[in-house]
Amino acid sequence: MINFKNSRLRIVQISCENKMAELKSELKLKYFELDRANMLNEENINMYQKSLTENEKLQKKIEVRSKEYLVIYFFSFNEYFFFKDYSK
User: How far apart are CA 22 and CA 8, in angstroms?
Assistant: First the structure.
């Protein structure tokens, strides 16, 4: 009877050890996946910040170009009326 209990206890111990090894392996994989996700998230944040900076630069360029366009337009408009022959 004691032999039976010892062998049964040993089976339970082995089963627990196997389950622990399986869980440790799963945990190791989850940590790897988490590190990978964090790394991708940081990369996305950096790309987002760069795109915001680039967007601001482009907005400023658009603003400058719009002002330049308006100046050219009004000068050409004024020149048209200035040089227009009204004698006809």
Answer: 21
In 10 A of CB 36, how many CB atoms?
10
pTM of the predicted model, to two decimals? 0.60
Q: Which of 55, 35, 53, 31 is nearest to 43 (CA)?
A: 35
Q: Take residue 73 and report the two structure tokens written for it.
A: 């337009």
In one-letter notation, the amino acid at residue 29 is L
* pLDDT 10s digits, 28-39: 999 999 999 999
Cα distance between the two ends of the chain: 128
Most distant pair of Cα atoms in the chain: their distance: 129
Residue 79 and residue 69: Cα distance in Å, rounded? 15
Distance CA 74, CA 72 (A): 6
**Token pair belonging to 56:** 């601001």
Collapse the DSSP code of 52 into the 3-class scheme (helix H, G, I; strand E, B; otherwise coil) and give the result: helix
Contacts of 84 (CB under 8 A, 6+ apart): none
